Amino acid sequence: MPAPPPDAGSQRATVREVRPSGSDGVVLTLDLEQPFERLRAGRFFMLRRDDALSPAIPRPFSVFRQREDGGLEFLIKVMGAGTRALADCRAGDRLVAVGPLGNGWPVLEASPAEPLVMVAGGIGSAPFHMAIEDALAGVDGAAPADPSALCLVYGGRHEGLLYDLAEFEALGVPVIACTDDGSRGFHGNVVQALEAAWERGDLPRAGRVLTCGPDPMMRAVVATATGAGMPSWVSLETYMGCGVGICNGCAVPTCEEGPMGSWPFAKCCVDGPVFATEAIDMAAVQH
Ligand SMILES: Cc1cc2nc3c(=O)[nH]c(=O)nc-3n(C[C@H](O)[C@H](O)[C@H](O)COP(=O)(O)OP(=O)(O)OC[C@H]3O[C@@H](n4cnc5c(N)ncnc54)[C@H](O)[C@@H]3O)c2cc1C
Ligand code: FES
């Protein structure tokens, strides 16, 4: 039975800084009582304030960036009570942080002919900053990737939902920004932007795809990747209760013939949040 990762635990954290991002988000920087060595990109923490302003159940957030001095940054879009309470934090406020949780992105080699294409929708960009940093640096035995072997396709309904776009562009890899209303970059959605880049010859129709964002967007991205013969992975943002495999609140339908076997559900918190798309039933994924 899957269990929480051995390095996970619950501890207090202190808010170092909160700065606005996009039209409805913040970047929250925390100092943990027990900082971690470099974490794998795509892992997450369950966070709540250590007072009555947060709901009792903590909420899951991907690690956005890990500073060299140990500070952890989270990119948070305000959705409801839990995210509002975190966005309203001030420096010095105390939080409860449970983590690091989840598996993180797979370590994949990339080349200009077989690039690693990352496709983010809105706040789904959060787990990609470290993914790009890791690919450029080369981690866990992978060779450092040339910047031209990576590409981030980053879409939102409008410019205000392209959180911290400048921080992604500053990484030095190709970033294709796109918006549904044309307020920034390519006028259209991420799939249209990707197809246009393939047609222009800016990207080979080859390589591997990582995606995170709203479920319908991920379904369309996975269908496009599969149609192009490109293996793909998704990072799912299911609702979560415990984050550690106990409550069964994060069920993800699996593919009977896939690598996870015949059990009909995986748990997003301990089996994911990253899944190879052949392992899960993307058509049935909805939150
Ligand atoms: C592994 C993982 C990583 C995540 N990383 C991030 C991140 O880096 N940044 C970030 O901003 N968010 C992230 N999320 C989503 C975040 O956890 C939710 O937005 C948050 O739990 C909402 O809590 P709330 O109390 O503010 O909203 P609630 O009051 O619980 O809900 C408010 C509204 O938002 C909707 N909602 C709540 N959760 C989700 C969800 N997961 N997907 C779609 N709609 C939802 C509800 O249906 C409701 O309409 C992540 C989720 C998971 C599972
Ligand atoms: S959130 Fe409780 S089992 Fe996954």
Notable features of this structure?
287 residues; alpha/beta; Elongation Factor Tu (Ef-tu), domain 3; Rossmann fold; 2 domains; 16 strands; 30% strand; binds flavin-adenine dinucleotide; binds FE2/S2 (inorganic) cluster
Description:
With 287 residues, this protein is α/β, with parallel strands linked by helices. It folds into two domains: 9-101, Elongation Factor Tu (Ef-tu), domain 3; 116-235, Rossmann fold, CATH 3.40.50. It has six helices and 16 strands. A seven-stranded antiparallel beta sheet has the order 4-3-7-1-2-6-5. Strand 1 and strand 2 form a beta hairpin. The radius of gyration is 18 Å and the shape is globular. The model has no long low-confidence stretch (mean pLDDT 95). The structure holds flavin-adenine dinucleotide (FAD) and FE2/S2 (inorganic) cluster.
Assign the structural class, choosing from mainly alpha, mainly beta, alpha/beta, alpha+beta, or little secondary structure. Answer: alpha/beta
Overall 3D shape: globular
Please, how many domains?
2
Please give the CATH architecture of the largest domain: 3-Layer(aba) Sandwich
Beta-strand proportion: 25-35%
Neighbour order of strands in the largest sheet: 4-3-7-1-2-6-5
Q: What low-confidence regions span 5 or more consecutive residues with pLDDT below 50?
A: none
Please give the CATH class of the largest domain.
Answer: Alpha Beta
Order of helices and strands: EEEEEEHEEHEHEEHEHEEEHE
The major pleated sheet works out as:
7 strands, antiparallel
